[in-house]
From TrEMBL:
The keyword Cell membrane does not apply. This is Acetyltransferase. Keywords: Transferase. InterPro entries: Hexapep, Hexapeptide_acetyltransf, Trimer_LpxA-like_sf. GO terms for molecular function: O-acyltransferase activity. CDD domains: LbH_MAT_like. Belongs to the transferase hexapeptide repeat family. The lineage of its organism: Bacteria, Pseudomonadati, Bacteroidota, Cytophagia, Cytophagales. Coiled coil: none annotated. GO terms for cellular component: cytosol. PANTHER family: ACETYLTRANSFERASE C18B11.09C-RELATED (PTHR23416:SF23), SIALIC ACID SYNTHASE-RELATED (PTHR23416).
Length: 175
């Protein structure tokens, strides 16, 4: 019965994700999915959230159709931009397991990072401070600080300026 209740709460969270009211969505995510969400942070429509422990810092923007998997722990620190259609996984199946066991670990996204659209982050990864992940990248290991990375699997493309002065604070009225 408890599993059913948690599944139902997660399912309602998916439906709430389609409601064009930012305040209502944040209320549900905080009150029922128990996500810690900082000041001036926004989660745009159609986000899929897998229950678990998720912490979102201040000034974070999570774009449309993102997937946030908190089953093994997900920490998103301050001033992070997660673009549309990004998937962050903390748990997956072990392909070598004869019983299809799950394996994974916490994902940490450090402050001032930007994950561009359609990227996938796999379990047990740290995206270090100021890193930029190019569109459609596969992140299967830790990303160095203040670098631009891209590709499948990713490789470092170049360094990023360490002087970051902006603070993210944006959500569309109906998104």
């Amino acid at each position: 019965m408890v599993v059913f209740l948690f599944d139902f709460i997660e399912y309602i969270g998916l439906i709430i994700g389609y409601v064009p009211n930012h305040s209502l969505r944040l209320f549900y995510y905080k009150a029922f999915l128990k996500i810690k969400i900082g000041k001036n942070s926004s989660i745009h429509r159609c986000c899929q959230i897998r229950r678990g422990k998720i912490t979102i810092g201040d000034n974070v923007i999570i774009g449309e159709n993102a997937l946030l998997d908190g089953r093994m722990g997900l920490i998103i620190k301050d001033n992070v931009n997660i673009s549309s259609n990004v998937s962050i996984y903390t748990l997956q199946h072990d392909y070598n397991s004869p019983t299809f066991e799950g394996s994974g670990g916490k994902v940490i996204i450090e402050m001032n990072s930007w994950i561009s659209c359609n990227s996938v982050i796999l379990p047990s990864v740290i995206v270090n401070e100021g890193a930029v992940i190019g569109a459609m990248s596969l992140i299967n290991k830790d990303v160095p600080a203040y670098t631009l990375v891209g590709g499948i699997p990713f490789k470092v493309i170049k360094d990023r300026n360490k002087r970051i002065e902006y603070k993210l604070n944006y959500h569309k009225s109906f998104f």
